[in-house]
From TrEMBL:
This is THIF-type NAD/FAD binding fold domain-containing protein. One of its GO terms (cellular component) is nucleus. Belongs to the ubiquitin-activating E1 family. Residues 9-67 form the THIF-type NAD/FAD binding fold domain. It comes from the Eukaryota. InterPro entries: ThiF/MoeB/HesA, ThiF_NAD_FAD-bd, Ubiquitin-activating_enz, UBQ/SUMO-activ_enz_E1-like. It comes from Salix udensis.
Length: 75
């Protein structure tokens, strides 16, 4: 999972994977009923419940050479 914040204080979470049982013991934001759901969306929703004033968005991109045009200097 990738995490970034911008100048405006907006937090961006990105992960192109879904939650599996093995993730439940390592990620405190995930619950049993989240298995099969997109990690970044679930993490964003859970974080927003903890802090409703958080400016956060979920992306479903993998951070790698193929997405370097997305995660460039302006990101």
């Amino acid at each position: 999972m990738g995490v970034s914040y911008g100048e405006q204080g907006r937090l961006t979470l990105t992960d192109d994977d879904v939650i599996e049982k093995s993730n439940l013991s390592r990620q405190f934001l995930f619950r049993d009923w989240n298995m099969g759901q997109v990690k970044s969306i679930v993490a964003t929703s859970a974080a927003a419940l903890i802090n409703p004033h958080l400016m956060i968005e979920a992306w479903q991109n993998r951070v790698n050479p193929e997405t370097e045009n997305v995660f460039d200097e302006t990101f």
